[in-house]
Amino acid sequence: MAGTRRRLKRLQLAAVLVAGSMLTGGCITVKAPDKPIVIELNINIKQEVVYRLAGDASQTIDKNKDIF
């Protein structure tokens, strides 16, 4: 008896899901945009350049200690 109720519940759930998908099946459309998608990237490379200059300055100071 309990097995029959479970089957009936599953059948009802399946029927509801199928009916729901039929009702919303025509409502969903996927369309490509008219304009291209633009992604703007603002990358700050200042820190990397400053780091390289700092490394070069350190080597220059070590090589020419009499100047500084």
Brief synopsis:
The chain has helices at 2-24, 46-63. The protein is mainly α.
Could you describe the 3D structure shown?
The protein starts with a helix and ends in a 5-residue tail after the last helix. The radius of gyration is 34 Å and the shape is elongated. Helix content is 60%, strand content 0%. The longest helix is centred in the first third of the chain and has 23 residues. The chain is mostly helical and 68 residues long.
Low-confidence stretches: none
Class by helix and strand content? mainly alpha
Quick one: biggest sheet? none
The secondary-structure element order is: HH
SSE layout and pairings?
Layout lengths: L1 H23 L21 H18 L5
Structural descriptors:
single chain, 68 residues, mainly alpha, 2 helices, 60% helix, 0% strand
